[in-house]
Design a protein that fits this description.
Number of domains: 1
Number of strands: 10
CATH topology: Lipocalin
Radius of gyration: 19 Å
CATH architecture: Beta Barrel
Order of helices and strands: HEEEEEEEEEE
Length: 160
């Protein structure tokens, strides 16, 4: 192979690699609307979900409630951009022996984020849908004990 052809192939390969790297970074950037504190008011009190940017390719989240002055954490979550995709990785107290579970992103857009793990007991699907800049709907769904189940949590962004 001639030097010119090798050079051309090298340059084209680097351009493709660069474009692929930018695309990967954009997946997590597309969902920066998730960052902030969100509240779901229920009859039993409020449930919160807080997201912060913890690195160029990672968000940290936690789901919790506040009762009196006590904060009860339900789960800690990592939203992690890896080479092969975007992952939602929750660790839930008293579940899965305290080990994290990985859900892979199946849909990523400016207003929707859908993760799936068909092997997980429940949920198998976790979805976030942005309604406005200050409201979103979180939904968990899948099959449990042979029954299709779906839980929806409308959330409003709170100023803190």
């Amino acid at each position: 192979m001639k030097t010119g052809a090798k050079f051309f192939i090298t340059i084209v390969s680097l351009i493709i690699l660069y474009a692929w790297t930018i695309k990967q970074k954009k997946d997590i950037q597309k969902v920066e609307w998730l960052i902030g504190t969100w509240e779901n008011k229920t009859q039993k009190g409020s449930i919160y979900e807080t997201w912060t940017k913890s690195g160029q390719n990672e968000f940290s989240g936690k789901s919790y409630s506040v009762k009196d002055k006590d904060t009860i954490v339900f789960e800690n979550i990592r939203l992690l951009q890896e080479k092969n995709g975007l992952y939602y990785i929750p660790t839930v107290k008293n579940q899965n022996d305290g080990l994290p579970v990985r859900f892979v992103a199946k849909a990523i857009s400016e207003n929707q984020l859908v993760f799936e793990n068909p092997q997980h007991d429940f949920p198998q699907i976790i979805a976030y849908t942005k309604i406005t800049s200050d409201s979103l709907i979180t939904e968990i769904s899948g099959t449990k004990n042979g029954q299709n189940r779906r839980q929806t949590f409308p959330m409003k962004k709170v100023k803190r």
